[in-house]
Amino acid sequence: MAEHTAAPVTDTAAPAGTTTSTNNAAPGSTTLWVERTGTRRYTGRSSRGAEVLIGSENVPGVFTPGELLKIALAACSGLSSDFPLSRRLGDNYDATIRVSGAADRENEVYPQLDEVFELDLSELDPEARERLLVTVQRAIDKVCTVGRTLKAGTNVTLSFDIDTAD
């Protein structure tokens, strides 16, 4: 197998069966990759055993890559705010974070992503509610890696590991 490398890859893609000890990932980190499973269908996998079905909008039962981006943002906001919310509301609070944003197909970007955090704060007085929302916003702004990355932008590299007849 010959390798053509345009740029280094770290923590992005790995062929089936690759473990953290055989890729460029840092020791102890999770290896992530996608495998083609059909026309316009992939399965995303992690070295921790997680799987997600990925495909085009017209493929039933899958997420599109753009939907996964949005879900990652909403999930990161939820996880980032879990500690202050559970501390104030208890471990069994209900929350839903809806995320939306239309793609600009001419430029193939999402120019705007909007999150709506649905919480029942009716048991709190207005001042306590405001304090909690400020704390939650600060927590998300400080530790939501997905949101921080989207806001800052990031460098993305791609390399190829190819089979050749040589």
As for the CATH topology of the largest domain, it is GMP Synthetase, Chain A, domain 3
Describe the strand arrangement of the main beta sheet, using strand numbers.
2-3-4
Overall tally of structural domains: 2
CATH superfamily of the largest domain: K homology (KH) domain
Low-confidence stretches: 1-23
Shape, principal axes of CA atoms: elongated
Organism: Nocardia cyriacigeorgica
Pfam families: OsmC
Region (Disordered): 1-31
Protein name: OsmC family protein
What does this entry show, briefly?
This protein is an alpha+beta fold and 166 residues long. The protein contains three helices and seven strands, in the order ββββαββααβ. The strands form three sheets. The protein has a three-stranded antiparallel β-sheet with strand order 2-3-4, with no helix packed on it. Strands 1-7 form a two-stranded antiparallel sheet.
Question: How would you describe the overall organization of this protein?
Answer:
- The longest helix is centred in the middle third of the chain and has 25 residues, at 65-89.
- Mean pLDDT is 88; it is low at 1-23.
- The chain contains three helices and seven strands; from the N terminus they run E-E-E-E-H-E-E-H-H-E.
- Helix content is 31%, strand content 22%.
- It has 166 residues and is α+β, with helices and mostly antiparallel strands.
- Strands 2-3-4 form a three-stranded antiparallel beta sheet, with no helix packed on it. The chain has a two-stranded antiparallel sheet with strand order 1-7.
- The protein folds into two domains: 2-63, no CATH class; 65-152, GMP Synthetase, Chain A, domain 3, CATH 3.30.300.
- It has helices spanning 65-89, 126-143, 145-152, and strands spanning 2-4, 32-38, 41-46, 51-55, 95-100, 114-119, 160-162.
- A hairpin with a 4-residue loop joins strand 3 (41-46) and strand 4.
- Helix 1 (65-89) crosses helix 2 (126-143).
